[in-house]
Amino acid sequence: MTDKARYSRPELLEHIAEVWAEVLCLDRVECDQDFFELGGHSLGAVRTASRLGDELGCDLSLRAIFEHRTVEALTAAIMKAGAAG
Q: What is the DSSP secondary structure assignment for residue 61, as one 8-state letter?
């Protein structure tokens, strides 16, 4: 999907999981897995926040990655903020 695209919840879950998998060099990330327990670190969190913010057309803070450490939690926060749909 392109910049400022609107995502359904399942699409957003899948997209965030794909981005995390790419950033963390993993084949797959499950919705309940913790970004940092999977090997994420602050630089990876910066890359993730920047990439997702650009792709979703919103201002996604680094703090969001630290506070919402699973795909499920981050998706919920983004949906609540109305940034993706």
A: -
